[in-house]
């Protein structure tokens, strides 16, 4: 099975991780902000517990020490987190590493770390957080994919199910989804639609 899966939801709680795992989602990122080291460790352990026995893979955002200590297998870092992280320790613990990028300089930094995938965003305007970077647009996906070659490319930022065909056609290997699931009136139905698309796209 490819990693990350073509549908890659990003959520902020263990409850969401559990819900998505039960729906059959293959790759789930847990992005919980502003936790202490102790709370981060407990949260990662809890998230690993709730996916046990499912097909889900948990990707821990940011908390690389907690990910190592809890025995997680997958990690995602933003550029600020990457600058502070011990990539040698992360690799030594056997974790996969995905890295966020927004511009040329960040892409060079990410490639130097030999990541397992690279994320590009925001593709479209996003409502969840104020972004320092302007929307990248569809054409940037094609450019980034040419530059990174065989490394999987994850597109993120304001993407809805209806955008998926053109995102994949532009060269993305995976789509990270936040509000299109978590803020949907019927999240379970939306997730099933994404999973159905993944199988046919």
Task: List key phrases describing it.
alpha/beta; eight-stranded parallel beta barrel; 18% strand; 201 residues; 8 strands
Topology at a glance:
Layout: E1 7-11, H1 14-22, E2 27-30, H2 37-51, E3 57-61, H3 64-70, E4 74-77, H4 79-84, H5 87-92, E5 96-101, H6 104-112, E6 117-120, H7 138-148, E7 153-156, H8 164-170, E8 174-177, H9 179-182, H10 187-200
Parallel strand pairs: 1-2, 1-8, 2-3, 3-4, 4-5, 5-6, 6-7, 7-8
Helix pairs in contact: 1-2, 2-3
Walk me through what this model shows.
There is one protein chain. Helix 1 packs parallel to helix 2 and helix 2 packs across helix 3. Helix content is 44%, strand content 18%. With 201 residues, the chain is an alpha/beta fold. The chain has an eight-stranded parallel barrel with strand order 1-2-3-4-5-6-7-8, surrounded by six helices. It is globular and about 40 Å long. Strand 1, helix 1 and strand 2 form a beta-alpha-beta unit.
């Amino acid at each position: 099975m490819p990693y990350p899966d073509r549908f890659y939801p990003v959520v902020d709680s263990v409850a969401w991780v559990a819900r998505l795992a039960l729906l059959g989602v293959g790759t789930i990122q847990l992005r919980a902000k502003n936790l202490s080291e102790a709370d981060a460790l407990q949260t990662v352990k809890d998230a690993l517990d709730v996916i046990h026995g499912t097909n889900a893979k948990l990707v821990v955002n940011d908390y690389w020490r907690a990910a190592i200590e809890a025995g997680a297998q997958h990690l995602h870092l933003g550029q600020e987190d990457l600058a502070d992280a011990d990539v040698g320790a992360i690799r030594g613990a056997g974790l996969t590493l995905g890295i966020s990028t927004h511009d040329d300089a960040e892409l060079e930094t990410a490639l130097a770390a030999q990541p397992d995938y690279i994320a590009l965003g925001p593709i479209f305007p996003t409502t969840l957080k104020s972004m320092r970077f302007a929307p990248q647009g569809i054409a940037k996906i094609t450019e980034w994919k040419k530059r990174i070659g065989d490394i999987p490319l994850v597109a993120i930022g304001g993407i809805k199910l209806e955008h998926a065909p053109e995102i994949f056609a532009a060269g993305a290997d995976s789509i990270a989804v936040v509000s299109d699931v978590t803020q949907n009136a019927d999240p379970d139905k939306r997730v099933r639609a994404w999973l159905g698309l993944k199988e046919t796209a």
